[in-house]
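Two proteins were folded this term; both appear here.
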Amino acid sequence: MWWGHQIPAWYVVSETNGAIEDHTPFIVAYNEEEAQEKAKQQYGANIQLEQDPDVLDTWFSSGLWPFSTMGWPEETTDLKTYYPTSVLVTGFDIIFFWVARMTMLAGHFTNQMPFKDVYIHGLVLDENGQKQSKSKGNGIDPLLMIEKYGTDALRYTLISKVAGAGQDITFDYNRTNDTSESVEASRNFANKLWNAARFAMMNLDGKTPQQLGKPAPETLELCDRWILSRFHQVVRQTRERIQTYGLGEAAQGLYEFIWGDFCDWYIELAKTRLWKDAQSSSRLVAQQTLAYVLEGILKLLHPFMPHITEEIWQTLTQATDEVLALQAYPEVDQGAIAPDLERAFELLFGTIRTIRNLRATLEIKQGAKVSVILQTESEEERSILGSGKTYIQTLAKVEQLTITPTLTEEIGQVIAGVFGTVQILIPLTGIVDVEALYTKLEKNLSKVEGEIKTLTDRLNNPSFVNKARPEVVEGAREALAEAQKQAEILRERLQHLKGL
């Protein structure tokens, strides 16, 4: 592909006067030899040619790109095979300058449109919200972000924010903003996946997913069936979203499944089984399910985070002459999808979260076990809670769990929470001194409010903001935000304890 190629026009000048004037005749030809022949035929042998010094601009040249790179104007094999293509990915700012020219030139020279779809994304702007420009010298070097957060984190953020929403985002190297926080969150996501994969492989006895095999349906426990249902739901959603260019939605859906369903819930549910006797059939099924879903996750996420997924997959599968990039993308197993089971686990997880929040309010130590009463008039909900009783007791550190349709007995002082139509109660007798805890939280709140006042006064002082180093000012802002968050949590806990 030529860039800025010289205009194929040759001016016919005399031997005695080589100056080019407005009325100087010219010849257009494919090359100088052809121009010479044409000029001799029209003006005789005693002529001199000089090619126009101007060049065709970049936009004209790039307008020819879709077909000229395939060997056009010859009817090459590449042209027949790869032209027209399916999709062009571009920013909205060059729709007229580039995309329109490509369609017009392609239509004129080939009688075909060069692509079926145009996928339009947003732009990455500089810290002042200006478009990057060579003339302005405000180009953003992605290597700085890569050095700080990693290649996959930056790639995932751009797919989520720019390609997904199709909106502009602003990068600022010197200050924390929404974009840098998003890249940091993407890095944390990569770390989460890495640690989850490391835990899984530590508990697979050195075996690969292929060696373990896929678990037989009749051997699956309730949580295995749930994670497989969620996995295949996400496979279906991801494939559909990619096919309809919903790349941001696909990325976000994978984030929620991997971080939430797989890491925070299934791995925690599987731990007790993985730590059982090596000959336990329950342990084997947990290993099989864990390995199967982990490998599927790596395949699903590979287009979004290619480096970390390739690295993990190579270790997980012990591949020697294969790469993840060439593996088939996961297919949906409709038979594994169980919407009713997924709704049941939403109830179980919501109940567990509520118990954990109540424990946090009471500042009950993580290892301490409590008694919990779950009350709901719904027979279906009681059945679901009963089937997941072991999960509730394990993940919420519950020693005695009572599931009842009504509260008929006097149960003394309790702290209560609600999830849906399920009332969740923790009896307080022998667990916590509510008055002492209330006093302690009040003192903590007073201390945090003092920190908030000090930081606020400092940031409202123009002398500090203008004279202090930028990182010091930014540190003060972050400290203020953290203190305000702590104060909000303490106020919520005090409000909860006030009625006890």
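Next, the second protein.
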Amino acid sequence: MQHPKDNHGIVLFAHGSRDPLWRAPIEAVRQHLEAQSPPHAAPAPVVRCAYLELCTPSLPDAVQELVAQGASRITVVPMFLGTGKHAREDLPVLVQALRSSHPGVQFHVQNAIGEDPRMTALMAEIASADNFL
């Protein structure tokens, strides 16, 4: 079983949907992250997707899998366009429970991905693209 680089895991945390097609972009980000490690370098961090509701795995289940693989540092990336109720209220409660359940693990929670200026610029670029050619 692969161990996370520097005992580091990443969880892409999204809302979730019953429609499996909805999850495809989140899974594509996971695959992209896993493919970023150059062949001669140590393996990239292990990346898992997790969902708040309507599908699996849950955030606690994804974290448990990373911990079982040796992760001692876990970064949670909220895959939300903004810091709404889920990122502002639900996620901190979940992460606090994870910290209690895994006291030897360091958790870092990034800001909602849609609030990163790079994502805002990319969305603006995509929105302004001339798709009629």
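Residues 85-101 form the longest helix (17 residues). The helical segments are 20-35, 59-68, 85-101, 117-128. These notes refer to the second protein only.
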